[in-house]
Design brief:
By secondary structure, the chain is α/β, with parallel strands linked by helices. Helix content is 42%, strand content 20%. A five-stranded parallel beta sheet has the order 2-1-3-4-5, with helices on both faces. The protein starts with a strand and ends with a helix.
């Protein structure tokens, strides 16, 4: 059985490290990108069909924000079916609805617990 792969796209290196440690402890292989452009580029480099089980995506990032990244992912045939868990400090109702409206599968606000992250993961990964 191969390890499911998860891509973390977040500009905060501490969050990437924390999420990576949590996911690797659960048996996932983790890829990382420090911004939206690098995340898109990493996905475009993947062999098709792309075998990423989940994308953990921040909203507030320099350059392309997470909502723009998510919109672009959902418009591309190779990435449109990859589940996306938004992990962000944007916690107002309108922020959360904006994430869902462009295709987020689950939304976790920072600060977050390991249980919150893993619960969201369990809901969206096949």
């Amino acid at each position: 059985m191969t390890m499911k792969r998860v891509l973390i796209i977040d500009d905060d290196p501490m969050i990437r490290t924390l999420v990576r440690a949590m996911l690797e402890a659960e048996g996932y292989a983790v890829l990382q990108a420090e911004d939206g452009e690098k995340g898109i580029a990493l996905l475009e480099e993947q062999e098709k069909p792309i075998d990423i089980a989940l994308i953990v995506l921040d909203v507030v990032m320099p350059g392309m924000n997470g909502l723009d990244v998510l919109t672009r992912l959902k418009l591309q045939p190779d990435t449109s079916n990859i589940p996306v868990l938004m992990l962000t400090g944007e916690d107002k109702a309108e922020d959360i609805m904006a994430g869902y409206s462009v295709g987020a599968d689950y939304y976790v606000t920072k600060p977050f617990t390991r249980q919150q992250l893993l619960f969201g993961l369990s809901l969206v990964i096949n």
